[in-house]
Write the structure tokens for this entry.
Amino acid sequence: MKAIQRRQSKPLKPLPKPHGVDFLLLLFILMICALGLVMMFSASYYYGITSKGDGLFFLKRQMAFFAIGIAGMTAAAIIPYRVFRNGWVMIALYAAAIASLAATLKWGTSILGAKRWLDIGFFSLQPSELCKVVLIMTWAGIMSRAVNMQHLIVGVLPCVLVVAPPVVLILLQPNMSMAAILCVLMYIMLYIGGTMRSHRLALLVVGIGMALLLILLKGYRAERLFGFLDQNSDLLGRNYQLNQAKIALGSGGFFGQGLSFSRQKLGFLPERENDYILAIIGEELGFAGILGLLSMYMAVIWRSVKVAMNAFDRYGRLLSAGIASVLAVQVILNVAVVSGAMPTTGQTLPFISYGGTSMVVFLTAMGLILSVSRYTKVTTKNAGPKQQE
């Protein structure tokens, strides 16, 4: 990642003539989405019949979200990525993200005491999902303009000031896990951008301290943490969902019970089509199925990082690496939560879990990386192309 950490010192050069997108990256994305639609049908069929009177209810909606996401990905891939580096475009996207978070607090749908969704008619928008990608785009724009990322005031402070408003608004929903994820993404971007280790360490200490304080201020957060630390207690209460997920994963064995033969999806495991769909994949396709899925995710992340390292300019490198980081963080969190390796965060499994906002946002974000890939210089050797700094 050393190439990503070099600071920009020359004026912007025009983008070269575009070529085809990274085909392998596109292929792996579509493969994950195809598996996701199959597993969505399997995981949601029984619940669709019992709750909606239509076993295909969730699948049909997810296919509609997928179609919208493909349209967004296509548009993002066609538009030259540097358009989003424009100051006015950055400000407009950031302002829209902040406005949607504020609107959610005022008019959002309240579920279990949290306002995280904004009903816009045909589906519920979760602005915090959109905010993750917008912040990556904003940080990439700021860092690509910074004269010296190792300077606290010039390099680090603007990135911190950008993340502060959405973090506060998300904490008011309340949604501490999402706020923490935004802070983690900022830390990753600061590392990629080449900031000083001492500055990152100071931010890390402050962040951990604030997280502990927020946990202690809210009893239910501490209760969730204690439940995670003692997972064999209260199996019919606070640890019920995790216990059912473990039963699903354990009963799947290596090769699984077979597609559509899950028992836990028959009303035992909550959120089986959403945050915990990985447990159903493990039950039906076994450890081999999960390993195959994670391998495809690794392939997408690998191709995205390769695009970042071969990008034409610093903004393209930061943008691609940042989006790859978002995907990696979300996959790791979902796998860790479902397997009981960390407390519940409520994060979806990208391209797999049911949800319009997540599907559309992640596919569109992948389109941005595909746009960057169109402007990498094609070489016949393994040596990376000469890039603009």
Remarks:
- Strands lie at 109-111, 114-119, 124-125.
- Residues 1-9, 379-389 have pLDDT under 50 and may be disordered.
- The CA atoms of residues 378 and 385 lie 7 Å apart.
